[in-house]
Amino acid sequence: MIRHHRAAFVVTALAVAVFAVAGCGTADDDAADRAVRAVAPVTPAPAPDLPSPEPAADCADARASYAPDEPLPPPGEMPEGSSMRAIQDDGVLVVGVDENTALFAARNPFTNRIEGLEIDLVREIARAITGNPDAVRFETVLTAEKNQVVADGDVDLTASANSMTCERWSLVSFSTEYFTAFHKLMVRKDSGITGIADLAGREVCMTEGSSSVKLLATGAPDAVPVEVPSRTECLVALQNGDAEAYFGHDTFLRGMHEQDTENTMILPDVVEEQHYGIAVAHERTDLVRFVNALLQRMRDDGTLAELYDRWLGSDHAGVPDPRYRDEAS
Amino acid sequence: MAPTIAATRDETARDGATSGADVRDLPLAQRVRTTPGSLRAASVVLVVALLVLGAVGVVVATARADAARDVGLGAGPELSAAQNLYAELAATDAAASASYLSPGLEPRDLRRRYRDALAAAGTHLARVARMPEASPAARAAVRTISEQLPVYAGLVESARANDRQGFIVGAAYLRQASALMREEIITAATTLYDDASRRLGDAYDDGTSALHLVAVAVAAVVTVVLLLAVQWFLAHRMRRVLNLGLVAATVIVVIIAGWTLGRMAAEQSALVDARRQGSDAVQVLSAMRILALRAQNDDQLVLIERGGGEQYALDYDTVMRRVRGTDGDGGLLAAAERIADRRGDPARFDAVREQLAAVAEVHRAVREHDDGGDYEAAVDLATGDGIATAAGLDDALRSEIARARTELDDHASDARGGFGALVVAIPILTLVAAAVVLIGLQPRIEEYR
Hints:
A: 329 residues; 16 strands; B: mainly alpha; elongated
């Protein structure tokens, strides 16, 4: 019958329409979801824990290094098989530096060149080995890892405000002392802090992994430590009022104080002397002796004193005398 | 078609044993069993079915119209604002680190880029803050950004002031600024972006729900079947071939159903196009732009950080993997190209692909210089070619995003058109159909009086 056909037609047409319309409704991939997932924050990898070294067993005097060989071989003529020969053959001395210590090792923001007392010192080492003071490749290292990279052989040496301690001797060997620093306090002028005795309950900024942390814990146990990854952030903490004092080597304090002379001051109290040595891997004693011979020559001919004058003016304690743990090999 | 064809009287006589007046005295069940009772019941059922159809049609058409309007005028623009906010924040940070890294005085165009991006971020934040249906998390995120963005700008200016005097503490300020941007501000922007993206997805789902179509179709089919059944009853029991009222009502129901389904089909197809050609592309390209800016920033921060910059190098690798995939051929770029493919324009992102390759090439060279200890050359390259290629990529992505956004707007505008007339017409047509049903059946009921 006509009516039945019409009914069937209407129902079928509706069904077809519904399925046709419903069928094209779904997106065929998850482009939008993918975009949302892609801009989700990246989770940073956690920093690896560095082992805290035990004091070296044979460490009677952390300042004593290996006696130098005499005389120094001429540049570019290092003895066959020596560590220096390997560096000469590579044509470049790989040096780990910290770039955040004004006057010692820091980028000049106008030229982007790294410069400072320690930089000039390692350039002298490069000159003595290869004849070219610019044959240096600088690897930037964090304070906490500056000895580990030497022990791992990633760099030939570091000259990076590295205090000679028996703990560190267990990881690396040190040259003779090239600079004496003093642990001091730099404070906000409005803090009223006049010495280490005033630190109880006050926030004191220090670099993570530095010798200051332990020293403060013994010297001022009631101070509130604020640890930051790189020491320039301590100046930020001081300027922002997140800390009232910075505890560290006067070498750092000096560079930081120069960046904010009006509002900070360095207190005269010396908490502890720090003796800087150049760190070299244990198995490269020949390089230590070579560096010591060079340092001795620089002490004798006044080059080291000239470097002090160039970078620090008259504001330093003078070139320290070397100490040796053995006779020349 | 002829009006009410004459019925034969013997049919009436057989069922007409009881008169109309008597029927009203009988209980309901018996009343319905009589022919006039059946016809009265039928007219009630048909009117109810028509009203249900009309109600379903209006509700569904309104829901679809709302969803289509939301895509075009609500959730869609809100997602754009959230994406723009996120991208401008990333651009701000990239420009700040590029300015800082540039040796000597910061280049004027980088300074301008920084200021423009920061101002644009503020504008988009104001837009995002006005989102009417933002979740509590999104509101908290807006608050975080409003509070922290000025702090960020302050840190950047401190970095700049120190840098101009040659003080290296500037780098520490910039590091803090960037950490604040990445850890708090961008994280909050991600929340806003997620929220807006989810709401646009919901609007699409609402606007393309099969349930709506099925509801209208079922209501229409049930109504048509009831109309046909009553016609069949009239034809067989009363020998009436066609009842004009019922025929007219059937035609109106088919018109309502056809019009509603047709409009919804057109709307659905426009929304699917808006999604597939418009907002999918906008989302993928915006994500690429955000990540490319972050990668540029990473590259500069590695150089600014000087030691301890490994986290940024790792971040660069992660981010670029998301953009290009591991082999330089996957990731979001591949997703964008699939979208271009399905609209028959596979070469559309060739320029973007080339720009990405150029950026990756400069990155490789910068890392090579820096890892080789030649920091000055690395900085020269990063602040020269690095900034130029990154700007080229950013410009290419921005123009593609604008293009995709236009397509989104066009399709969304198609989707929401024509519902106004439909929503007015459905109730009118339904009432007309109900009236003609009653007009068509009343004479048949009257015949028993």
